[in-house]
Design goal:
single chain, mainly alpha, Globin-like, 0% strand, Hemoglobin
């Protein structure tokens, strides 16, 4: 099995562009994103920078994904599940099998971390942990 990557900034930008076009149109997560994102071209540039930092170790992203997601109280586990379904679908459309698998692995790990940080269950059939997230709600 060939494990060499063909990922570069151009391929990641194409992935991000196609993926977020799907997100905008998706009936489940589109309304959440469309309400939060006021400049889609800028958002896509920011997320390209994020994914280049993750996949290429580019160190070009400056931001705090956890605080951005925590600022969206309507995000639930099913939204993460749908996001990941669209991500999986899009990576397989625009990347070769090895690169798609790598990008999916990154996304799964990041999503798990975000859900944990937001106090959300990891699966749809799981109950929330009941652990308060510092800085959210009442003590």
């Amino acid at each position: 099995m060939n494990t060499a990557t063909t990922l570069d900034e151009s391929r990641i930008a194409n992935l991000v562009d196609r993926f977020y076009d799907k997100v905008q149109a998706d009936p489940s997560i589109g309304p959440i994103f469309n309400a939060a994102v006021h400049d889609w071209p800028e958002h896509k540039r920011l997320l390209t920078s994020f994914w280049c930092s993750v996949a290429l170790r580019a160190a070009s992203y400056r931001g705090n994904p956890m605080s951005v997601h925590r600022a969206q109280p309507s995000i639930r586990t099913e939204h993460f599940v749908r996001w990941l379904e669209l991500w999986r679908e899009t990576t397989l459309e625009v990347l070769d099998e090895n690169d798609a698998a790598q990008m999916l692995d990154y996304a799964e790990r990041i999503g798990r971390s975000l859900r944990m940080g937001m106090g959300l269950p990891d699966r749809l059939d799981a109950r929330p942990l009941g652990i308060p997230v510092v800085g959210l709600g009442k003590p």
